[in-house]
Amino acid sequence: DETLPRQELEQLSLAQLHEELAKHSLPLSPDPAQCIDTLMLFFEQRDVEMERNSKQKETAPATSCSPQTDAEDAKAGNPESLEQTMKVFMRRLDQQQVLLEQICRPSPVVQSYALQAPASVQSSYGLPPALICSPRVNPVLSNVPISVPSYGLPLASAYSSGVFQTPSALATMPTAQAVSLLTSQIPTFGGREDEDVALAKHARDWYDLDTDIIHGSWESLKGAITGRFRRRIPFNLVLQKAGDHRWNAGKESFQEYAMAKLKLHLLQLPQDACINMLISGIDNFSLKSAAVALQVDSVNEFLNRMYHIASVCSFKRSSPTLAKKNKDSRDPKDSSSPGKKPVSPSSDRKSTCAYCKLRGHSKAECFNLKRRDQASVPSLGASTSSSTSSFAGVAAAEENKPSPSSASSPEDRSIVGCVMNDTARQIRICESTTEIVLIDGRKFSLLVLIDTGSPVTFIQESVSSPAKLVFRQDKLNHKDSDLVCFLSDLAKTTLSFQELEELRDENRDVALLASNKIKLYNKDYCDKCHKAPSTYKEGDYGPYLVAKGLNKNRYVMQDIPEFSITQKPYNSILSPDKLKPWIKSLNSP
Questions:
Q1: Which regions are flagged for Low complexity bias (predicted)?
Q2: How far is residue 480 CA from its own chain's centroid?
Q3: Is residue 217 part of a domain?
Q4: Which of the listed residues 285, 312, 339 is the one where a domain comes to its end?
Q5: CA separation for the pair 406, 289 (Å, rounded)
Q6: Do 524 and 553 belong to one domain?
Q7: Which domain holds residue 306?
Q8: 116 lies in a domain?
Q9: Which residues have C-beta within 8 Å of that of residue 487, sequence separation ≥ 6?
Q10: Are residues 252 and 307 in the same domain?
Q11: d(Cα 587, Cα 238) in Å, to the nearest integer?
């Protein structure tokens, strides 16, 4: 066969190029440029093989005619013959290495050749149907011509026996092209870390504690971890769990309910059983009747029908309204109302008043509450001005006694006074204390303490405060309360300035004597309970080296040279109670 130049190949049509490719048993391609490249590569490789064969034929007679000379050269140690022998040996080693690589990866080569070769070539070499119909095509190998095995066996027998011969094209192609060809066979990496399998929680603990060799391969690891954690669930429990799931239309749609119920476990039930299981979880009678009336054969069709039915019959979940109790409908003080049960004598002792928090009576029978209600009711002849912020004046102590039937004048209504029991006028106030601001036309600031059955008492504010009268103790929460008390006491004193200085010096001496006694007691107690600290010298060894001694029983501790315990150098100041030597000093006998 003659070699066509590239200019002539470019002038040929696509059909003629396909004829040339079929003539040389090369893969076809719809692209004319790719067909031309395939033919040119085939012609170049064929020329190289022809030159190699011609050289072998030329050297063959010479070697056959002079075997003794070769033996003599080998015995004599001719460097040229040894170098040529080593080259041949290295070339054969390279061919064997390529052959081993092709035996390990025979499928891409055979598949690409079987996919793109003509039908006549496939039938003549007997390719398996699985290889002919495979859709995977390697774009790099599609342009590389593949030589037929030269073992004298058809390709089908070579495929069945697992023996493949190295293609001559792979052995003769340049290094860069061979590297790119072999690189295409390496599986690509997706660029994500989640492609690897990671064990977590109990699986990780099991993997670390297991002593058997289970990580030899993925199959052994998969079988071991499946046998360890796989548990068989009884069929009746799974079926009961699936049957107990009810459809709550207010929280989930029918599609969500169906998927949650079907994925509980792979029960491998028939289609009609799955449909009946889904219908049994519907509580709405109308929707359940519509679902039963559907004539379907598969779960998918049933879900499609129920989607339309549920979308039309959708409803919102509404909670029932509770009737509010009318608290104003009955009087809380009325014990005879129908809502209140009669209190028995036995429960009367255990009842607690809601007003005064005392046991033995109820709120309706509380004496304090009745007293408060009676005090809040205004009388006909009394004035209510005493309960307000304004204080009424006090009239003269001597006045005429008005008759009970006589009406009081407006001037008398604005005046309150202290009268005896035989008078018709009375004072009604809510609190036990009040303030007197005017007596006989003179202004005063006096506190009045009211007590039943006793006459009114007038108390000066300087003698006792209202808080002390009511709460029996002073409630001075002001910031200057201490200063006020001090100034009040200072104003009451009758001592002279010299006497005050003498009293101050005397108090200071007493305080100093008490302070000295406390210091002396603390020193005696500390000396009695104190233990003498251990003393160390510079250079003493313990867990660390005593580098320097400081005052107040302190020492600078550092790492022992070339024996550091921690990664970072240790340098700290410690007291003797936190130090302990390796070996205690032995006392001499």
A1: 335-346, 378-409
A2: 55
A3: no
A4: 312
A5: 92
A6: no
A7: 235-312
A8: no
A9: none
A10: yes
A11: 80
The alpha carbons of the chain give a radius of gyration, in whole angstroms, of 58
Centre a 10 Å sphere on the Cβ of residue 25 and count the other Cβ atoms it contains.
Answer: 18
Q: Can you say whether the dihedral through the CA atoms of 215, 219, 220, 225 is positive or negative?
A: positive
In whole angstroms, give the CA distance from residue 55 to residue 77. Answer: 25
Q: Is 453 exposed, middle or buried (0-12, 13-18, 19+ CB in 10 A)?
A: exposed
Residues 503 and 555 in one domain: no
Per the rule left: phi > 0, alpha: psi between -120 and 50, beta: everything else, 162 is left
Report whether 124 contacts 18 (CB < 8 A). Answer: no
Residue 244 inside a domain? The answer is yes
- Whether residue 159 contacts residue 133, with contact meaning beta carbons closer than 8 Å, is answered with no
Same domain, 272 and 299: yes
- Total structural domains within the chain: 4
- Residues β-bridged to residue 457: 449
Residue 461 and residue 444: Cα distance in Å, rounded? 10
Q: Please tell me the distance from the alpha carbon of residue 549 to that of residue 533, in angstroms, as a whole number.
A: 13
Residue where a domain terminates, one of 312, 345, 360: 312
Q: Is 244 exposed, middle or buried (0-12, 13-18, 19+ CB in 10 A)?
A: exposed
* CA–CA separation, 153 and 125 (whole Å): 9
Q: Is residue 569 located within the same domain as residue 502?
A: no
DSSP SS3 for 468: helix
The continuous run of DSSP H or E covering 222 comes out as: helix 218-229
CA 37 to chain CA centroid, Å, is 60
Whether the model clears a pTM of 0.85, i.e. scores above it, the answer is no
Q: What is the pLDDT along the chain (589 residues), one digit of tens a residue?
A: 556 777 788 888 888 888 888 888 888 888 888 888 888 888 888 888 888 887 777 665 544 444 444 444 444 445 566 777 777 778 878 877 777 776 666 444 444 444 444 444 444 444 444 333 333 334 333 444 444 433 333 333 333 334 344 445 556 667 777 777 776 666 555 555 555 667 788 888 887 777 665 566 677 777 888 888 887 777 777 777 777 788 887 788 888 888 888 776 566 778 888 888 888 888 888 888 888 888 888 888 888 888 888 877 765 554 545 555 454 444 444 444 444 444 454 444 557 888 888 887 888 888 788 878 877 654 434 444 443 333 334 443 344 444 444 444 444 444 444 545 555 556 666 666 677 777 777 776 666 666 555 555 555 555 566 666 665 556 555 667 677 777 777 777 777 778 888 888 999 999 999 999 999 999 999 888 888 888 888 888 878 889 999 998 899 999 888 888 788 888 999 998 888 766 555 555 4
| Residue 396 in tokens | 């003269």
Same domain, yes or no, for 504 and 563?
A: no
Statement to judge: residues 513 and 552 lie in one domain: no
The widest CA-to-CA distance across the chain, in whole angstroms, is 176
Tell whether 32 is covered by a domain.
yes
- Under DSSP, is residue 492 helix (H, G, I), strand (E, B) or coil? helix
